[in-house]
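Sequence only, no structure available. Ideas?
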Amino acid sequence: MKKILMINGSPNEKGCTFTALDEIAAELKKNGIESEILWLGKKPMSDCIACYSCVKTGKCAFNDQVNEVSEKLDDYAGLIVGSPVYYGGPNGRLTSFLDRLFFTSSAKLQGKFAASVVSCRRGGATAAFERLNQYFLMTNMHVVGSQYWNQVHGHSPEDVKKDEEGLQTMRTLARNMAYLVKATDCAEKNGIPVPQHEPIIRTNFIS
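Reply:
I predicted one. Tokens follow.
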């Protein structure tokens, strides 16, 4: 059965965002689903420069983690993206990564399960959460919900571990995703086809 890839967009490898993702990973494992956490690190992440090189080559012109992840996407059943909240939005390094990944790899991402997780000290979580979900909602991905918006609160990992509702929300998300991955696996074994979509029509709002 395919794994779940979790992207840790925080500059702190073992910080609050990791604590939330690690809670998900543990619950996924209890439910028979393997996962791995990819930390994007602290180095600058190139933005998408709209060069459209990927349209011709299938790869981003910047040969970094984006291409590494893109090459392995067929191994994953789903994607969970985690970010700290900066000024009511997700981390800039993470959005640069996702802009390029989704532009180069939308065909590979279609049909996979997706969720976002945000970590904040106090406020701005829902705005950051909604921003991240936009990547999934326009890529024919199946967004997995939980019992509340996927957020944890705290200034440190120790604080997050005290956020009982937040951690429970992570566990509920993990169980929902595990169920859907298993259900899809069962559907495939029983010959239930995946949705077949029409060619995308793109229009501009110009008369």
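The longest strand covers residues 76-86.
Hope that gets you unstuck.
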